[in-house]
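Category: protein sequence paired with discrete backbone structure
Discipline: computational structural biology
Format: plain text, a pair of labelled lines
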Amino acid sequence: IEMKGAVEMAFAQINHRIGPYQIDLLWIDCQSDPVKAVLAYEEAIIQQGIQAGLLNWHTPVALACMKVAARHKMPHFFSLAGASAINEVWHSDPKQYYYWVKGWPEPAKLTANYVQALEDAIARGWWQPAAKTAAIWGEDTEWGRSFAAGMKEQLEAARWEIVAEDYFPMDQTDFVPWF
């Protein structure tokens, strides 16, 4: 809702115009489901006549829609899906996926400041851990695993010991262990 509101406010501020072009927004609800996303995206292109795509969120949806954009040679700007899988597909055939423009960097590039903050706190004496141990815990998605891989690599480079690594379904809400 916030993203939609931000986009609508931004386009309202420029009177829904980019240069000489009038921009009409058509919202597609992908329901965070790649199959539903492809069907909705294809319908928007073929039946509604959209000429460009903008935004999206989850990596599985982006991976599926990348193929649709490539097939129709339709630009899609600022995809927010950032998992490594997006780059891998794009680099597998840049001529085909030329139309897909990603907005987020590799998740590993986003983790560097977390590790640096820990190291700075230790170096400044603000935090004195008994040991440099860490557990990696994240959602079992391309994003969660990409982010965790970046975190793990950078923690290990800073001589942290990874003592556990676990992933959970994105819709999991109960994290109480069963013994």
